[in-house]
Automatic annotation (TrEMBL):
Pfam family, one: Proton_antipo_N
Taxonomic lineage from the root: Bacteria, Pseudomonadati, Planctomycetota, Planctomycetia, Pirellulales
Membrane-topology descriptor: Multi-pass membrane protein
UniProt-annotated location(s): Cell membrane; Membrane
InterPro entries, sorted: CPA3_Na-H_Antiporter_D, ND/Mrp_TM, Proton_antipo_N
Gene Ontology cellular component list: plasma membrane
Chief location of this protein within or outside the cell: membrane
Segments crossing the lipid bilayer: 6-24, 36-55, 79-101, 113-131, 165-184, 214-237, 249-272, 284-303, 315-335, 341-361, 373-394, 414-434, 466-487
Record-given protein name: Na(+)/H(+) antiporter subunit D
UniProt keyword annotations, A-Z: Cell membrane, Membrane, Transmembrane, Transmembrane helix
Domain annotation NADH:quinone oxidoreductase/Mrp antiporter transmembrane: ranges: 130-428
Domain NADH-Ubiquinone oxidoreductase (complex I) chain 5 N-terminal: residue ranges: 70-114
This protein's record includes keyword ATP-binding: no
Length: 497
């Protein structure tokens, strides 16, 4: 099969998955088997496609122009390929986990849930493989709309309010800022195509845009891509925590937020070009905004007793690392930002899997209620500890490498306040993550109403919840030893600039 056909098949499989989920909606076992089969097939096809891309190929698929100059087209390059591998690979484990969670909690509307899940994966792949800004914008909006029913899944007043904040912020920022940035870029550059090295250096040299205007344009992109959750456009992310935990895992690790930071990194590398950003210094303000976001969100996370709320603000902080890497625009920082897409995805999905498993097994949501639970749920809390080490940036978690390259980027640019921000944030990561497994393993367990009751023993969540979180925790360690491969994948993004 040719690489182009593999690309078309990869794009089509999630849509086939949507159809199969609705077709077998009244047969839960068949429905979920179909979802899992499509997820496995997609990952296999994506791996085959990756073998061509990493060997230097760039498969393309041009569907056609909607209006002159605005084409739907796809091209696979290394950064998008890495994102696609992460999204398709984690979809397999999330599908298994979601089946266990949704059944364990006796959730309603499960057919709609799995259909929207598949649609969100389609949007993630469409963004990953987008050949131009217009295609990226369309994929970005499909992602927002397809995940709205997931955020409001429970149908409660709280869920509807959370959904309104989610939809309101993401749609308003994309229409007010992102769309305008695309139109401005098309006007001055005459193209929206992603090109390694960027497309804005020539308009700057020709006087079609000044350096000050270039900084404004970057701001429109950075804040227009609201899914990157830069402050002050971050409130949608904590608001979306009303969704079921598998949705939170999708939002924070597999698709939604990763589409945001992937888009920021893609714009920096393929629209502005890292040479242009570095020589003009128009992106340094964005680096400090990202640094402020990653420290402030970490401080807020420390105040949250709700486990999902704490993880939500942790995600805001961790996403800012990737925006920081894009803004610094050095080879090390761009590679660090690209690495962090994969490292954070695996670590954070593990943490949300653990939060969901704790809720399924004990119906506890608050950290203050989790003392002693580690002896009841040792696999879950051991996985939580491993993933926390990766998020913090400590061995043997893979996150140590992405943070290392980001720190190198701050030193190379001699912005030592940014270096300090990275170090402070990592210390805050320790402060809000490590006490959770310590409380679970070391603190006395809450006594039961009956003083003569036997010890609870090991009472983990259903295996369909526990096995995925154990595998993703193990993958965090694997990434520590295989980070060199990710480095080689991302090197073409910076080697020719």
């Amino acid at each position: 099969m040719t690489p182009e056909n593999l690309l078309i098949l990869a794009m089509g499989l999630p849509l086939i998955g949507v159809g199969l989920v609705f077709l077998f909606g009244k047969l839960p076992n068949v429905r979920e088997a179909a979802s899992l089969t499509i997820a496995i097939a997609l990952f296999g096809i994506t791996c085959l496609l990756a073998s061509h891309v990493f060997a230097g190929g760039r498969p393309e698929w041009h569907i056609g122009e909607m209006i002159p100059g605005f084409e739907i087209a796809f091209t696979v390059e290394p950064l998008g390929m890495l994102f696609a591998l992460v999204a398709s690979g984690l979809w397999i484990l999330t599908t298994v986990y979601a089946a266990g969670y949704m059944r364990g909690n006796h959730e309603s509307h499960q057919t709609r849930f799995f259909a929207c899940f598949a649609a969100a994966i389609f949007a993630a792949l469409a963004a990953a493989f987008s050949a131009n800004l217009f295609t990226l914008f369309v994929a970005y909006e499909i992602m927002t709309i397809s995940t709205y029913p997931l955020v409001t899944h429970h149908g409660t007043r709280e869920a509807r309010n959370g959904g309104r904040v989610y939809l309101g912020i993401l749609l308003s920022t994309s229409v007010a800022f992102f769309m305008f940035a695309i139109a401005w870029t098309s006007n001055i550059a005459g193209t929206l195509d992603f090109r390694l090295g960027g497309i804005l250096a020539e308009p700057l040299a020709d006087g079609k845009i000044t350096e000050t205007q270039l900084g404004v344009l970057l701001g429109l992109f950075a804040f227009g891509i609201g899914k990157a959750a830069l402050m002050p456009f971050h409130r949608w992310l904590p608001a979306a925590m009303v969704a079921p935990t598998p949705v939170s895992a999708l939002l924070h690790a597999v698709a939604v937020v990763k589409v945001g930071v992937f888009s920021v990194l893609k714009v920096a590398v393929f629209i502005f070009g890292i040479d242009l950003l570095r020589t003009t210094s128009v992106s340094i303000w964005l680096a400090y905004v990202a640094a402020g976001t990653l420290v402030t969100a970490s401080l807020v996370a420390m105040t949250k007793d709700s486990l999902k709320a704490r993880l939500a603000y942790s995600t805001i902080s961790q996403l800012a690392y990737i925006s920081l890497g894009a803004a610094l625009a050095t080879p090390a920082s761009v590679i660090g930002g690209g690495m962090h897409i994969a490292m954070h995805a695996v670590g954070k999905i593990t943490l949300f899997f653990c939060a969901g498993a704790i809720y399924v097994a004990t119906h506890k949501k608050k950290i203050s209620q989790m003392q002693g639970l580690g002896r009841q749920m040792p696999f879950t809390f051991a996985a939580f500890l491993i993933a926390s080490l990766s998020i913090i940036g400590l061995p043997p978690g893979g996150g140590v490498w992405s943070k290392w390259f980001l720190a190198v980027g701050t030193v190379e640019t001699q912005h030592y306040l940014l270096t300090a921000a990275l170090m402070i944030s990592s210390l805050l990561n320790i402060a809000y993550l490590i006490p959770i497994p310590i409380r679970a393993f070391m603190a006395p367990q809450e006594t039961t109403a009956d003083p003569h009751a036997a010890p609870a023993g090991i009472q983990e969540a259903p295996w369909m919840c526990v096995v995925p979180l154990c595998l993703t925790a193990a993958l965090s360690i694997v990434l520590f030893f295989t980070a060199g491969s990710i480095y080689e994948v991302l090197l073409p993004l910076v080697s020719s600039q």
